[in-house]
Design a protein that fits this description.
Elements lengths: L1 E5 L6 H10 L8 E5 L3 H15 L7 E5 L2 H5 L4 E4 L5 H14 L10 H24 L4 E5 L10 E5 L3
Parallel strand pairs: 1-2, 1-4, 2-3, 4-5
Antiparallel strand pairs: 5-6
């Protein structure tokens, strides 16, 4: 089974990979594709994962890429944990909101609106790419890495 993580340079990815390394089920993930627009973060996380896999039999094959086509082609599952604008964007969203006297926090505040609006073009590109390169894949959209409520994660199927 192939799993693609969009936002693959994120600091939570090693936690996901540890769980994959512990899975010895026949139907386990055999290939993990990491996609990120930040090459430096992607390289750092890939290095950590390769170290975690040292000595682990049947560790999922790792593919790290900044090419969405490579990340998505024929994948089975897509875990989207993107943060358009990075932590700099989050800080700006929260600060601007606070300057206007409203809660800026990205989960329950006005900062979340800015975060969502900034993400629309990126998500639209991702949806189009999923339709083209992985039309049968399931998409797990972890919309807000800071959120812990059930509404912060949704599973969708993208159909052509």
């Amino acid at each position: 089974m192939k799993l693609t993580i969009l936002g693959g340079g994120g600091f939570r990815v090693p936690l996901v990979y540890k769980a994959l390394l512990a899975d010895n089920n026949v139907e386990r993930v055999t290939q993990l594709r990491l996609y990120d627009t930040d090459e430096r973060r992607l390289a750092a996380i890939t290095s950590v994962l390769r170290e975690l896999a040292t000595g682990v039999e049947c560790a999922p094959e790792l593919i790290a890429t900044t090419d969405l086509r490579v990340a998505l082609t024929d994948t089975d599952f897509i875990f989207s944990a993107i943060r358009v604008g990075g932590t700099t964007g989050r800080a700006l969203d929260e600060q601007i909101s606070l300057r206007h006297g409203v809660i800026g926090q990205e989960t329950v505040g006005a900062g979340g609106i800015s975060y969502a609006l900034r993400g629309i073009p990126a998500v639209t590109r991702i949806v189009d790419a999923v339709k083209e390169y992985a039309p049968d894949a399931w998409v797990i959209n972890f919309t807000n890495p800071a959120g812990s409520s059930p509404s912060s994660c949704s599973v969708i199927s993208v159909t052509a």
